[in-house]
Design a protein that fits this description.
By secondary structure, the protein is an alpha/beta fold. The chain is built from nine helices and five strands, in the order E-H-E-H-H-H-H-E-E-H-H-H-E-H. It is globular.
């Protein structure tokens, strides 16, 4: 999946990491961060960053949702915003139309900075919705962290305390295994031990850098 950004001057690769909830994306990224020259961005954290006061995204959201969405410190109140979206089905699409482009713009700016510095070989962005949000057209490669449904269910029930019904609902809302694989260039099987998943990552990255 050749990205439109192209090959960087220092051969830096822009890689997207995606996968279903409970697949273990965070553990994989922690290992990569600790062992390889890279920059890693989590889309959820970037979304929080672009909604801070003073940003264009913040101004657009306040205009859309109203100033009563702000808390006493002048930040956007997450619970208030969620309540507004829950009460109006049309708002979620409008909010996403503001936030998703802002996240992409932020990431591409960081990508250009990393390219200019030339100090890392790998630039990662992680999100469950990378494929749905069109990142396949931006990244050089899309990596899919896979784990069997039974394994993911067990992890989510044990680590997050989710009920079986909640896990089922979350999984049903995400892409199918077939769709993830069809839109990815590399699959990391994290159904077993983390050591096995790390070995797969090592084999892949050592061919790249």
């Amino acid at each position: 999946m050749k990205g439109t950004i192209g090959t960087m001057r220092n051969n830096m690769k822009f890689i997207g990491i995606t996968g279903g909830v409970g697949a273990g994306k965070s553990s994989i990224l922690e290992y990569i961060r600790a062992n390889y020259p890279c920059e890693i961005y989590l889309a959820d954290e970037v979304a929080h960053e672009v909604k801070k006061p003073g940003t264009k995204c913040f101004q657009k959201l306040v205009k859309l949702l109203g100033e009563d969405v702000l808390d006493e410190t002048g930040d956007i109140d997450k619970k208030c915003m969620a309540a507004k979206i829950f009460a109006d089905d049309t708002l979620l699409e409008k909010v996403n139309a503001i936030v998703h482009p802002a996240v992409k713009e932020y990431l591409l700016e960081r990508l250009e900075e990393a390219k200019e510095k030339g100090t890392v070989k790998l630039f990662f962005v992680e999100a469950a919705l990378l494929i749905e949000c069109g990142y396949g057209q931006l990244v050089d490669e899309m990596w899919y962290v896979h784990a069997k449904k039974s394994v993911r269910k067990k992890r989510l029930m044990e680590s997050r305390g989710y009920s079986a019904e909640k896990v089922k609902q979350i999984m049903a809302a995400q892409l199918s295994e077939e769709e993830f694989r069809k839109n990815s260039d590399f699959v990391i099987d994290n159904s077993g031990s983390l050591e096995d998943a790390y070995r797969q990552v090592d084999q892949k990255i050592k061919k790249m850098i």
